[in-house]
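In the previous chapter we treated chains in isolation. Here, by contrast, the input contains two separate entities that must be folded as one system, with a combined length of 584 residues.
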Amino acid sequence: MVENRAPGWSEMLKAIFPHSGKARVLGLTGPPGAGKSTLVDQLARFYRKDDRKVGIVAVDPTSPYTGGAILGDRIRMQEHFSDPGIYIRSMATRGSLGGLARTTADVTTVLDASGRDLIMIETVGVGQDEVDIVRLADVTILILVPGMGDDVQTIKAGIMEIADIFVINKSDRDGAEHVEREIRSLQSLAMRHDGWTPPIVKTVASQGVGIKELASAVSDYEAYLQKENLALPKSVENWQERLVEMLRDAMLEKARTQLGDGNLARLAAEVAEHKRDPYTLVEEIAANAGKS
Amino acid sequence: MVENRAPGWSEMLKAIFPHSGKARVLGLTGPPGAGKSTLVDQLARFYRKDDRKVGIVAVDPTSPYTGGAILGDRIRMQEHFSDPGIYIRSMATRGSLGGLARTTADVTTVLDASGRDLIMIETVGVGQDEVDIVRLADVTILILVPGMGDDVQTIKAGIMEIADIFVINKSDRDGAEHVEREIRSLQSLAMRHDGWTPPIVKTVASQGVGIKELASAVSDYEAYLQKENLALPKSVENWQERLVEMLRDAMLEKARTQLGDGNLARLAAEVAEHKRDPYTLVEEIAANAGKS
């Protein structure tokens, strides 16, 4: 209901919000082929040993036209189906311009309110979209692998500062030390404002190697935030961004309602034929919205 | 000025818009390591032989905190520096939630108005962000490579329908036929509403192989759009999306102005402490915006 913005989604969220806020939220991202799904599965298994209820939100870079989710996740889902302590939700992009980070956050709120102790948001990619999705988590984990080719520098620069923990997965492969050195050298350039130095954890997720160490790194960071009184400020900062995003959508909705879809198509045609300048047009619409 | 939203950017765009609309715009994207930069360089060289003025907008998945651009592009830029017929602009993400697609479009409008005959928008990645950036081009080119690992299926599903032309770069490597078969099999599942079947062009950009064939594929698609009277409808559709995006920003600005930054921080703190439900809050702000 929330994911598809079905009627009543907003009332639903208002009702459950007071019950949310108890879950810890991990955000995991990395380039395609880094083994994220396997790592998330292993982490879920690990946390289940302590009988903690786990929720997984897998955000897939899926077709903006068909809105379908990735088959692989559905298959993976089956594997955990017998354990009610693990709930997995696959989300597609649904073709909305922007908005995916917001929907992911709302779906996470639902899982949180439902009583999950730990929620993992997993997404594929290292672009702005993925940054927006995972930065709203309490702890952000960036998963890299040895031998990522020429663009590894690009990837790490793009998402470097939001990673609270680095994972080098498939670390039994050649080049793991090289990736580690590169991370360290980039870290020396960028000082985090919270004073935390993100640790680098080496894993071989397919064999369960390093999972315990990764869970310890997560606990260490959470303990650091508590000790330095940084947990609430981080949450306030995240909410400030979420509120702006929500406000943007709400205001657009207001303007669209006033304008009407038919008018939008007509105006777009005038702009496409260069009969009208879009910059002045948008200013005029915004100025009039809400006046009547 | 336009990229950084420096004072006067909006007036500038209003003034130059009537002079834009003549350039052809190609959008090129693909996963990291696909060799996009080399391919774009080769295409630029090719078009320069006909003495066409080329503009390149390279959109980098750069740090949301530092806003810096990727060093590699700066270096690449130097190479063409002596040819005034090629103008390269590297763009960083600047940390804005969303918005990158819009800024890219605005920068493209500037290059267009400045008299560039052909503009190439190059971006790294296969997420929603990259889809939003390249789908606003006249012709969208997706660059894949052999041996992309397990996630190749994911990547292609995510961006499949927006590609007007597929390129298999580094096609002298093992697995080129395999990638081609996968594209063909995905194509058989999704019918395009414009009736065009995207061709697959094999290139080895580093050796200049297949560049002429790629340029021919671009011309073929443009000829098809003209023949079927689809060029204007496509442009109207693109502008409809751009207008919505612009309206979203303008309306947000309006709401923020009314609210004030200090208030936003205070309200975010109340939400973070779960004293206030964000969904009701945003509805209230939107309802009040523009009333006074």
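Residues 62-71 of chain B have pLDDT under 50 and may be disordered. Chain B touches chain A through 95 residues (CB under 8 Å). Compare these points with the single-chain example from earlier in the chapter.
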